[in-house]
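Dear support,

I submitted the protein below through the web form. The confirmation email said the job was done, but the results page showed an empty box. After a refresh the structure appeared. I'm attaching both so you can tell me whether what I see now is the final result or a partial one.
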Amino acid sequence: MKSSTLLACGTAIVLTLAASTAMAAGDAKKGEKVFKKCKACHTVDEGGKNKIGPNLFGVVGKKAGTHDGFKYSKAMKEADITWDAATLDAFLEKPKKYLKGTKMSFAGLKKESQRQNVIAYLETLK
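What the results page shows now:
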């Protein structure tokens, strides 16, 4: 293979990876708007009450099933999950598929951009 072809392929790979990383970052302002779908069941205020689902303030970086005062499903309590961008993305896509036995009845967010935006929003809640 010629060096110019290798250089072109390498550049294409780098640009593709950079684009996917940029997309993964999400937009917190857009995520706050998408999160309106979640407000029927979740609050996000620091020290806020639990609703049908737990308060999600500070959820990023937290072990699943550990928010004080919320009665989690056995599956969630026993899950060895720490909520980061990857686990939140997988869970938010199809919660019941990702974690069999979860009480979360939400069908999920099909669009990757919406999931990434919600995750970016949740990351601001510290």
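Response: this is the final, complete result; the empty box was a page-load delay. The chain has six helices and no strands.
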